[in-house]
Amino acid sequence: MENALNIVYNLKLEKMKNVIFTLILFLVAISAKSQLVGTKWKGNVNLPNPTPVIMNFQKDVAELTFAMNGSPLESASYSIKKDTIIFKKLFGGSPCAGNSVYTVKFSITDDKLSIVPIADECEQRLNAWTKEAFVRVKE
C-alpha cells in the first residue's frame, strides 16, 4: 500500500513539475516580447548607404520607416523566442518577396537595441543591417 502511495505521489509531483516548467516558459516568452512591444528605435540600415530609420514594434507588427520623413520602408509580423526575433515581411519597398522570413538575434542594454542577422531568405535585406545599435526613442 505504501509503495502504491509513493507511486501516486511521484506521478503527481512529476505532473506538477511539468506544469510549473510550462508556466515558466510561457512567462519568459511573454517577457521577451514585452521588452519590445510599444517601443521605437532609431538606427541606420544600408540602403545601400547608411540611412536613418525608425523601427516601431507594435503588438504583432514591426514597422520600419525613414527617420527623416516617416515614410514607410517595410512592415513585418514578428515573434520572439528568447533572444531571437523571427520577422515575416508583410509589405514594403525592399526587393524581398512578400512573406519572406528573416531571423535576427537581439539584445537590449542601456536603451540600445543590438541586432545581429542570423538568417534571411533575401540576400539584399541580410546585408542591410549595420553593426551599430539602434537607440530607444523616448516619447
Walk me through this protein's architecture:
With 139 residues, the protein is an alpha+beta fold. It has two domains: 1-34; 37-136, Lipocalin, CATH 2.40.128. 27% of the residues lie in helices and 45% in strands. It is built from two helices and eight strands. The protein has helices spanning 2-34, 123-126, and strands at residues 39-46, 50-57, 61-66, 72-81, 84-92, 101-109, 112-120, 134-136. An eight-stranded antiparallel beta barrel has the order 1-2-3-4-5-6-7-8. A hairpin with a 2-residue loop joins strand 4 and strand 5 (84-92). The N and C termini lie far apart (66 Å). Mean pLDDT is 81; it is low at 16-32.
CATH topology name of the largest domain, in short, is Lipocalin
Kindly report the average pLDDT value: 81
Q: Provide the low-confidence segments as ranges.
A: 16-32
Cα-based radius of gyration, to the nearest Å: 20 Å
> Main sheet: which strands, in order across?
1-2-3-4-5-6-7-8
Shape: globular
> What string gives the helices and strands in order?
HEEEEEEEHE
Structural class: alpha+beta
Distance between the termini: 66 Å
Helix percent reads 25-40%
CATH class of the largest domain: Mainly Beta
How many structural domains?
A: 2
- Please report the number of helical segments: 2
Task: Profile the largest sheet.
Answer: 8 strands, antiparallel, barrel
Secondary structure tally: strands: 8
Strand content: 35-45%
Going by CATH, the architecture of the largest domain would be Beta Barrel
